[in-house]
Specification:
Layout: H1 15-29, E1 33-44, E2 50-55, E3 60-65, H2 67-70, E4 82-92, E5 97-107, H3 109-126, E6 144-149, H4 154-166, E7 170-175, H5 183-195, E8 206-211, H6 225-233, E9 238-242, H7 250-254, E10 257-258, H8 262-269, H9 273-354, H10 357-362, E11 367-370, E12 387-392, E13 395-405, E14 408-412, H11 414-426
Parallel strand pairs: 3-5, 6-7, 6-8, 8-9, 9-10
Antiparallel strand pairs: 1-2, 1-4, 2-3, 4-5, 11-12, 12-13, 13-14
Subcellular location: Cytoplasm
EC number: 3.1.11.6
Domain Exonuclease VII large subunit C-terminal: 129-346
Amino acid sequence: MMMKGSDSNLPEYSVSEVAHAIKVTLEETFSYIRIRGEISGLKVASSGHIYFSLKDNNAVLNAVCWKKLANQLPFQIEDGVEVICTGSISSFPGRSYYQLIVEKVEVAGIGALLAMLEKRKQKLEAEGLFAPNRKKPIPYLPRTIGVITSPTGAVIRDILHRISDRFPVHILLWGVLVQGNEAAEQIAGAINGFNNLPYSIPKPDILIVARGGGSIEDLWAFNEEIVIRATADSKIPIISAVGHETDTTLIDFASDKRAPTPTAAAEIAVPVLSELKYTLETLKRRLDSTLPNLIKHNELKLNNLSTALGFFLSKIISLEGKLENIEFKLSNLMTNLLQRLNSKLQIHGMLLDSFHYQKVLKRGFALIRDNKGKVIKSITQIKLNSVIKIELHDGTQEALALNISGKSHSIKNPSEQNKQQSLFDNN
């Protein structure tokens, strides 16, 4: 036995040799293994490979699902889903870590699948994709119906047969996969494709998305988000008919009408031609029997209305004559009134003109104002030696008030006063 402290006899390995040995050991020991865990950190690379981790309460295991297998998965895996992955474990020496190479993915029981379905339903419902106000009415008599389903299954035959029996219309089939990982993308593409058909192709009035019965895994494509969003965004009304009557998928909540079976979808899409013919014939018989009486009744009403109309016309003519007479009298009254008012206006104008103070001034009177322009009406308003303005009919002259005493006063021109004052000063 070699002592712990003595390592001179231990073989020496390179890093590559150790990494390779570990890789061989892992691949030989875990060449085919099933591992149960919860998906975490899922990423889809541009190459199409899917990278994620499997975890439980105590550990995390890296995993990769290559593009070829990723395209064949029965459902789109997502974070939080508990799955069982089958594959082999290998290491990557360049990065010194190991991972599970996934060859198969299964949901860990129906419970886990239903839990994932409920979680997705709540998310899409919160976004309003299932709201009743988004539902579009189904046309009663469509001219063209678009069907999205497998082109080789019994579903399309059932739909064609049922529509042909009830009310033959033009049908456009968009064949898709209805199961497997590529199914969801094809179904969503068909819905979008019908909504964006060129004008040269008649756009359907209704779309039927259908598939026969199966397990929850078989119907999973109709639970994928890409299909639900395409259904909710469709401008063409959609009838979903997936599985049997007891099967429910998320497309049923997003569609405008859910049919329990594909055959039932055909019955919802078109009425029964024979029933329509019977209804039309019944209505025609009722019309034929009631039309003569209706015509006779309306003729009587028309005659009564004609008599009444004649009476009212005589009244209208009489009233028109009275109205013309009233208008004539009213016109004369208005003319006479205007003439009288005009005469009075002229007289008042002449009186006003005769009383104008300028007319009074022409008769020899004068208007006296103080230096502020205020009219002087009394001797008491004149201040000694104040300048006053005397307005005659042909102009205005300033004067100086002197020797004011009672009713006797003397008024001189200011210029003469200045002249006298100047002579007095010189003496």
